[in-house]
Amino acid sequence: MTDDVSKQLIDVLDRRVERRNERRDFFKTAFGAAAVAGAGIGAMSMGSRASAADPTTPTDPDILNFALNLEYLEAQFYSVAVTGVGLSPSMLTGTGTQGAAVGGRKVVFTDPLVAAYAKEIAADEITHVTFLRTALGSSAVAQPAIDIGITPTGAFSSAARAAGLIASAPAGTAQTSVFDPYANDDAFLLGAFIFEDVGVTAYKGAAPLLTKTYIEAAAGILAVEAYHAALVRTALYARGVATPSLRTSADAISNARDSLDGATDLDQGISPTTINGGAASNIVPLDSNGIAFSRTTGQVLNIVYLNNASVTMGGFFPAGVNGNIKTSAAN
C-alpha cells in the first residue's frame, strides 16, 4: 500500500485520530521505558523472562514479534479487501526473511454496513502493525511470505475444503475448487471469521507470558481484536437469518479450527443457543465460567499453518513465520 492509500484508509475514521494518537503515545512510552538506551528492545534485559535457568522461556520481544506476524496477515487481508492494495513496503522490513503477501483483490461490497466494518478493521490492523514495529524497533521481524490468494491449493481454499465448504477432488487428482473471500460480502465475512477468533485467543494466551510492562498494551490490542471478532460474528449471525447456510458455514469453520488445535474444544460457532429455556444468540465464545478461551502459540500456528502436527510452515504462512516462535503444536 502506498503512503497516500494508507493515509486515506485511516482518514476514513478521522473522528478516531485523536484516540489513536493517545494510544500511540502510550505504546511509545510503555515500550520505550523498558528499552536499554540506544540499543532498542532487542537488547533489553528480560530478567525472569529469559533467565539462565530457563533459556527456552520466550522473551517479551519473542511474544510481540509472534503477534506482529499475525498482525501482518490480518492487515494485508483487510487492506487488500478494502482498497485492493497491500501494506506499504516500508512497513514490511525487519529481521528474518522478508516475503510478499500474494493474492487477493478488492471486494465489491454491496452492504454498506459490511463495507464500513471492513474499513474500520483494516485501519485498526494497519495501526497494530505500526504500533508493534515501533515498539520493537530494530528487533521487529520482517513480514514473512503470506498467502491470501484464491488458488485451488491456496490457504483460503484449503481451509474451506477442510471445513467442507468446497468440494475435495478425488484421490490422485488435482484440486480445482476454490474459496474466494473477495467474491462478495458473505464470503468476505467467512474469510474474516477464519482469523478473528484466533487473534483473540492468541492475545489472551500470550498475556501470562508477558512482563508487567507490556500487559496493559497487550490488553488494549486484545480488546480491539475482540471487538473485531464480535463485529464479524454479529454480521454473520444477522445475515444468517435470511441465509442460514452462513451460520452453518461459520460453524463448520469453527469445527475445522478445533480439529487442528488439539482435543480441547476451544472454539464455538455462531448458531443460536439456548439460555434458560429460550433461544439466544452465540456471539461471544466463552467457557463455562464466562471467560474467553486461550490458545498457546503452538495452537495458533496449528490453525494458520492449517496443520495439526508440529511443523514450521504452511497454510497462510507458506515459508513459516519470522522470529523465535515458529513451531506449531503436535496434536
TrEMBL record:
TM spans (from-to): 26-46
Family annotation (CDD domains): Ferritin_like (cd00657)
A Pfam cross-reference name: Ferritin_2
PROSITE patterns linked to this entry: TAT (PS51318)
InterPro entries listed in its UniProt record: Pigment-catalase-like, TAT_signal
Keywords: Membrane, Transmembrane, Transmembrane helix
Record-linked PANTHER family: DESICCATION-LIKE PROTEIN (PTHR31694), OS05G0151100 PROTEIN (PTHR31694:SF26)
Entry protein name: Ferritin-like domain-containing protein
Organism placement in taxonomy: Bacteria, Pseudomonadati, Pseudomonadota, Alphaproteobacteria, Sphingomonadales
